[in-house]
Amino acid sequence: MTTPALAFPVRGRGRHYPYKPCDPSGWPRNRWQSVDLDDIPDTVDPLPSVTNVLSIIDKPALKHWSARMALTELYDADQFPADLDTAVKNHAGAYARQARKRADIGTKAHTVAEALTSDLPLPSSLSDEDEQFADAFLAWWSDTDPEPIVTEATVLDVERRYGGTADLFAIVDGIPTVVDYKTRGSGKPGVYQETWLQLAALASASEVATRTAGGWEVTPQSFRMDGMCVVLFPDGTYQAERVSADDIEGRWFPGFVAARVLWETLKGGNA
Using an 8 Å Cβ cutoff, are 129 and 136 in contact? Predict the structure, then answer.
């Protein structure tokens, strides 16, 4: 996902959303380009983002992928020295580069999807892989024919203390649905279980924040929604899976709430 307009990083605590919503771009930033707790205005309640909360859950598939790609990079470049410490250092650098590369690919694919959804200009330069992800998104859109309600929907829940941004709220097959786009490499598995926790949180938030001429307006979130994950592959194909509103309420949202409690316990405090 592209960085949401309201989101801001808190030092040592990850991405947050301000409640009531306001523009955080002018707040002081430290040398790590995050915001210290003392620099958040007293009128603002910082809510951890959905992805921040779910970062508390181990994601072995991502770690295994990054480790494998890091080793592949080093072998291809013949950069494995006999010295163990140097080899470990080289691998750590390659691991970080591969993780950033995967994140950059996902961000670009989300930008393309948002542009295609909203009839906005595409980025000025698209790689062959970007175009394939765009083709995959367009194939899903053509096959599914969703009716958009709002793109990049910012949701907030001050009582249960989290915020987030959904890629799309839409009517899909006659049902209000929160949609999230993911990218995977060719041959990789599609939807990971923690995605349903993310969609459940976005579908269950109590309020939606909308940008207006005077700032941000908060309204109650009135939809009971299904969740849908659309996985885009670099060969132009896609995989779409759905979870029902009943399963969100009965299984996945309680799981997210438990993760939220764990996040607060380990991070400390009430932020």
Answer: no
User: Six-digit token pair at 119?
Assistant: 């009839």
Q: In this structure, what token pair is assigned to residue 88?
A: 């470990």
Helices H / strands E in the chain, number of each: 7, 10
Secondary element (H or E) of residue 122: none
Q: Which amino acid appears at position 13 of this protein? A: R
- Which distant-in-sequence residues (6+ apart) come within 8 Å of 100 by Cβ? none
Residue type, 120: L
- Does residue 208 contact residue 217 with C-beta atoms inside 8 Å? no
Q: Which two tokens stand for residue 14?
A: 């990850």
Lowest mean pLDDT among 25-34, 179-188, 194-203, 222-231: 179-188
Measure CA 206 to chain center.
19
Residue-wise pLDDT for 166-180, tens only, equals 999 999 999 999 999
